[in-house]
Amino acid sequence: MTLGTVDRWTTLRARANSFATTRLGPVARAATRVHSRHPDSPAAVLITRFWLSAPVLRLTVRGRTSGEPRTVSLMAVFRGPDVVVIGGNAGAPRTPNWFRNLRAAGEATVEVDGRSWPVLFREVRDPAEVEDCRRRFAEVYPGMLVYAAHSPRVFPVGVLSPA
Length: 163
Description:
The protein is an alpha+beta fold. It contains 6 helices and 7 strands, in the order αααββββαββααβ. Strands 2-1-5-6-7-4-3 form a 7-stranded antiparallel β-sheet, with helices on both faces. Helix 1 packs across helix 2, helix 1 (8-23) packs across helix 6 (143-149) and helix 2 (25-37) packs across helix 3.
């Protein structure tokens, strides 16, 4: 899948997400908090169904400086029993904190549809595996291609495997 194959609606949503994240930080953080803390709320359901148009999971990882559990909602992209994660942060110039926390902790908990399980984190370095993970992610959420095309950085890729 290439950027040229992304439909206009997906491109528009991705550009709006990127704008909110890079230019309206507090607004984006507030929306993320609502989505993570109240995943069944009407606002979170609207975000998931109509804005993201992709399945979502909840990731809880220990904060690298606070040591406190931090929960964030992410796209649910599976590769067999593993979960593929990409630190895209809607194209913002910095790697998202949740990805940096995963690097530091090496483990987390994933929750999907009320079922949760512990996972181990591994950052993907092999170019062929990175490309496979990016392709799988773009199949679920093509907006990631829009983020990558307009970002000044290369997004890190990770895999969460059941512990």
